[in-house]
């Protein structure tokens, strides 16, 4: 199945010039699996949005989903 990751901010360096990656995933794959396939290092991505709702790395992906991925935000 085909899914899309829209990489934001500092995560764009792991994608292409548009920031949108099209990935072919197998049934039962999770966001964590997609991040691994996209070569986004562990700990870089922290917020995932699908259709305006926050989801988490264990979300089971469905055909044609477009997941917006934001970096971990640190502050002090």
Task: Describe it.
With 76 residues, the chain is mainly beta. The chain contains 1 helix and 5 strands. It has one helix at 31-37; strands at 2-7, 20-24, 45-50, 53-55, 66-71. The chain has a 5-stranded mixed sheet, with helices on one face.
Mind telling me the C-alpha Rg? 12 Å
Quaternary organisation of the protein chains: single chain
- Mean pLDDT across the residues is 93
Terminal Cα span: 41 Å
Shape: globular
Uncertain runs are none
Strand order of the largest sheet: 2-1-5-3-4
| Strand percentage | 25-35%
Count the beta strands. 5
Number of helices: 1
String of helices and strands: EEHEEE
Structural class: mainly beta
Q: Would you kindly provide a brief summary of this structure?
A:
With 76 residues, this protein is mainly β. It is 9% helix and 34% strand.
SSE blueprint and pairings:
Layout: E1 2-7, E2 20-24, H1 31-37, E3 45-50, E4 53-55, E5 66-71
Parallel strand pairs: 1-5
Antiparallel strand pairs: 1-2, 3-4, 3-5
Keywords:
single chain; 76 residues; mainly beta; five-stranded mixed beta sheet; 9% helix; globular
């Amino acid at each position: 199945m085909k899914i899309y990751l829209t990489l934001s901010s500092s995560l764009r360096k792991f994608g292409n010039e548009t920031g949108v990656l099209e990935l072919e995933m197998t049934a039962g794959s999770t966001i964590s699996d997609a991040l691994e396939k996209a070569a986004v290092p562990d700990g870089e991505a922290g917020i995932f949005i699908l259709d305006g709702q926050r989801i988490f790395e264990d979300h089971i992906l469905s055909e044609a989903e477009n997941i917006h991925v934001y970096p971990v935000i640190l502050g002090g």
